[in-house]
Amino acid sequence: MNFKQYLHQRYGNVNLFDRSFVEKDFVIHVDLVKDLYQLKKDSDEINEEYFKQAYQKSNELFEDLFREAEPLYFVVHVRSERDKYQKSATKVFRHLRRREDQYNIKFVERVIDEEEQVSEYAVLLPNKTALDYKRVIKAICNQDFPPLQPRFRQTYTYYPEVFFVNVDRNIVLNIYDDRGCFLLFGDSATYDMFKKKYRNDIS
């Protein structure tokens, strides 16, 4: 079963390409940081405490949603101008720890309109230890702030959109940047459980 078949079977009519999934019934939005801002007050200086909290909250969420032995899909979407080749996704997949997983990446391209296309790269991993997820998460949080490292660099494109998908529990985690993430659940029981658990962070 490939990733497209898995999505259809477990989530029904869900489309990750156009982000319409954020409006589905079993979706919650979680804030990564509250009461702080990316820059220090009246300054252009990076607020290190803000990003420290963003990294910490993102990793806590990931480790809560993905237990040690659970398989997951690691999915990357790269938006770009039509007919413009770029290497953003290949840089993201450098964070795979096992060489064999790099050979199992599946590629799908979707044309959105006359100007934009989306390339989807997906690989099924045996568990979260197969991925340097902490570095991936940190790069996602840093993306809009060039002084911070690591980051995903790109040409002719937005930065990559990353999805972590728990195959056993049917949970999609999309950390979109330092501000927050979307969680999509495949059933109401799991949705209700995590909605209650994260109720203080939901917006």
Features:
alpha+beta; 203 residues; 6 helices
Short account of what is shown:
The chain is of the alpha+beta class and 203 residues long. The protein contains 6 helices and 7 strands; from the N terminus they run H-E-H-E-H-H-E-E-H-E-E-E-H. Helix 2 (48-65) crosses helix 5 (133-142).
Provide structural commentary.
The protein is of the alpha+beta class and 203 residues long. It is built from six helices and seven strands; from the N terminus they run H-E-H-E-H-H-E-E-H-E-E-E-H. Strands 1-7-6-5-2-4-3 form a seven-stranded antiparallel beta sheet. A hairpin with a 4-residue loop joins strand 3 and strand 4 (116-125). Helix 2 crosses helix 5 (133-142). The longest helix has 18 residues, at 48-65. The protein is globular and about 50 Å long. The mean pLDDT is 91.
In percent, how helical is the residue content? Answer: 25-40%
Distance from first to last alpha carbon: 34 Å
DSSP summary: helix tally: 6
Largest sheet composition: 7 strands, antiparallel
User: What is the average per-residue confidence, as pLDDT, rounded to a whole number?
Assistant: 91
- How many strands? 7
Radius of gyration: 17 Å
List the SSEs and their pairings.
Elements lengths: L2 H9 L15 E5 L16 H18 L6 E10 L6 H5 L6 H4 L3 E6 L4 E10 L7 H10 L18 E6 L4 E7 L2 E6 L2 H10 L6
Antiparallel strand pairs: 1-7, 2-4, 2-5, 3-4, 5-6, 6-7
Helix pairs in contact: 2-5
